[in-house]
Amino acid sequence: MPIYEFECKKCKFNFESYVLTAEERIKCPRCDSEEVTKLISAPNFGSSSSSNSCGGSHSSGFS
To answer: Domain 3-42 class?
Structure first.
C-alpha cells in the first residue's frame, strides 16, 4: 500500500496518505477539501537491517 505526499490547494497544508486505488478521493485532513496536489517526494532507501553503512560488520578492536 503506497504512501503519497499531498498539498491542499485551499489551505496549503502538506500531508501524507495511503492510497489504495487510483479512483480514491483524497481529502485534506485540516480543511476537508478535495482540491489536493500529489507531491513528488524523495524515495526512502534506508532500512532497519542496513544500519551499518560502513560496508559490513567488523570488530571494534577491543577484547
So the answer is: mainly beta
